[in-house]
Amino acid sequence: MIFVDISALIPAYNEEKQISGVLTTLIKVDYLKEIVVVNDGSKDKTAEIASSFGVKVITLQENRGKAAAVMEGIKHLSCEIVVLLDADLIGLKKEHIDQLVEPMLNDDLDMCVGILENSSSIAEIAQQITPTLSGQRAVKKHIFYQIENLEESGFGIELALNKYVKNYGRSFQVKLNNVSHVKKEKKFGFLKGFVKRLKMYLDIIRTFFLNLFN
Q: Domains of the chain, with CATH numbers?
């Protein structure tokens, strides 16, 4: 049993076809005090669909990138433990949320990273090479404010969090079986999806070099 209040945060950009699956699971988790979706300048019905679940939706007028969306959402959370999830997950269940949260009940732990295992689709190349770049994690809220210029890291936010906690805190990893993402090429079409994937890798590389000597 989990007797502490937990926040859930989902940054989302044009995820009208996927976000329902994630929210259907989250609204059934009784210890989640609040669920916040940051609609990062979406041009589709992401905000409307998220709102239909009765969760709080924050809409950014322009697409500002994953890290900026996360940091905007963090401002609106009241709990110290934050479950951060991608909006396009397939196969997410309550037990996966339990796996992320339960280790965080240890006061010495600052972050728990969910490694996607046995996914039903081909994993992102970046996560094949470095699975700890997973966007599925539980993090103590104050950590987000300790990292300089975190909102500018884009898709490199996970790398920045990993680096900080490695240097100044403690982390743990759990395997999230049978959870996967929808491939970007499937969501956006081959060309547009490839461009988005390339931007993600560039954000990760840029964040890596910015944190290289920190």
A: 6-210 (3.90.550.10)
Instruction: Give the whole-angstrom CA distance, residue 194 versus residue 171.
Output: 32
Question: Tens digit of pLDDT per residue, the chain (214 long)?
Answer: 677 899 999 999 999 999 999 999 999 999 999 999 999 999 999 999 999 999 999 999 999 999 999 999 999 999 999 999 999 999 999 999 999 999 999 878 999 999 987 544 444 444 544 557 789 999 999 999 999 999 998 888 999 999 999 999 999 999 999 998 776 445 655 566 555 656 665 655 665 566 655 5
Rounded Cα distance, 99 and 204, in Å: 26
Residue 14 gets the label, from left (phi > 0), alpha (psi -120 to 50) or beta, of left
Q: How far apart are CA 155 and CA 174, in angstroms?
A: 21
